[in-house]
Write a structure and sequence with these properties.
This protein has 257 residues and is α/β, with parallel strands linked by helices. It has a single domain, classed as Alpha-Beta Complex (Spore Coat Polysaccharide Biosynthesis Protein SpsA, Chain A). It is built from nine helices and nine strands. The strands form two sheets. A seven-stranded mixed sheet has the order 3-2-1-4-8-5-9, sandwiched between helices. Helix 2 links the parallel strand 2 (49-54) and strand 3. Helix 3 (80-88) crosses helix 6. The longest helix is centred in the C-terminal third of the chain and has 17 residues, at 240-256.
Length: 257
């Protein structure tokens, strides 16, 4: 393994959302979605700290309420990556910055630590991310499920909303193969800080615009992305049904504790 690094988690947090208004401030469990995510991020062992990059004072107030660290960022930032990069620019002590989405309350500390370890092991990689096996054909063919294929060293070859690799002759056993043939991309990213600041200045690439996948900007520039495989599925909250499912999971865990 490579040298230990100085790493920080940054959670980009936007007040408004299209399919589930003000979702980060929903608190049916007694805690907001953002607080759940923050506390999950704090379980990672490698980072030196966790920050929220907020676009609105309402978000900042909530983070202060539960005792987290927060900084306001440009409300006009084009993406969560831009928001993370803005805050990373204020963290000169950071070697690695991990982008954890604010609507991922079930993300594990182990997954975050793995993303950091991948960069520590591979000095040539500027960025890392995670993936998990796809075991159903429905999921494989769902455009909302982003797929990734990797080379023999675990570096991403391509990300797509289409099924990749595409089986010329379908065999159901492909879904059960070990190592897995099909991988779902999990949208957690770790960046070397210097690269993250450069990424925010890079123009979108045509592949990125076609697939609506920002990570293709990185691959199109010839920059390696190291991918780690985990068995858990990070389940983001995008819709009312997603939030209801999270609340139900939380209640089951609370009752079992």
């Amino acid at each position: 393994m490579g040298r230990s690094s100085s790493s920080f988690i940054v959670i980009p947090a936007r007040l408004q959302s299209t399919r589930l208004p003000r979702k980060l401030l929903l608190r049916e469990t007694g805690k907001t979605v953002l607080q759940h995510t923050y506390e999950s991020a704090c379980r990672a062992r490698r980072p030196r700290g966790v920050w929220v990059a907020a676009d609105d004072e309402a978000i900042a107030e909530e983070v202060r309420r539960f005792g987290g660290q927060v900084q306001l960022t440009d409300p006009q930032a084009a993406s969560g990556t831009d928001r993370v990069a803005e805050l990373a620019g204020r963290l000169p002590e950071a070697d690695i910055v991990v982008n954890v989405q604010g609507d991922e309350p079930d993300i594990s500390g182990e997954a975050i630590d793995l993303a950091i370890e991948l960069l520590e092991r591979d000095p040539a990689a500027s960025m890392s991310t995670l993936a998990t096996p796809i075991r159903s054909r429905e999921q494989l063919e769902d455009p909302a499920c982003v797929k990734v294929v990797c080379d023999g060293q675990g570096r991403a070859l391509y990300f797509s909303r289409s099924p990749i690799p595409h089986a010329r002759e379908w065999d159901e056993q492909l879904l059960h193969a070990e190592p897995p043939v099909f991988l779902q991309h999990i949208g957690l990213y770790a960046y070397r800080r210097d690269f993250l600041l450069q990424l925010a200045q890079m123009p979108p690439h045509r592949l990125e615009q076609v697939e609506r996948l920002e990570q293709l900007r990185v691959l199109a520039a010839g920059i390696p992305i190291q991918v780690g495989t985990i068995l858990e599925r990070a389940i983001g909250i995008d819709t009312p049904a997603d939030y209801r499912a999270f609340v139900d999971r939380h209640r089951r865990r609370t009752m079992a504790a």
